[in-house]
Amino acid sequence: xxxxxxxxxxxxxxxxxxxxxxxxxxxxxxxxxxxxxxxxxxxxxxxxxxxxxxxxxxxxxxxxxxxxxxxxxxxxxxxxxxxxxxxxxxxxxxxxxxxxx
Length: 101
What we know:
Layout: E1 23-27, E2 32-33, E3 36-37, E4 49-54, E5 57-61, E6 67-69, H1 75-81, H2 92-98
Antiparallel strand pairs: 1-4, 2-3, 4-5, 5-6
């Protein structure tokens, strides 16, 4: 799994979760939640997710751009599955573009 998130500029102190709007990472494989493969409720896609950690919630974005809150996942799950913070983005759209969405 590739973890592309947010990286502070070289002249800034390291970011902590409270200092950033949200975090995002790619999840190219099927996502199993509660024993079931998670599919997009709109188009049925089940892989190549962008997983977004935003204010104590986890959201999923499918390759077609549909976004859904996933209440069975939380920030602790996100933290366990994500890698280190590697990029800062000025906007949500900049991050999505960099992640190929």
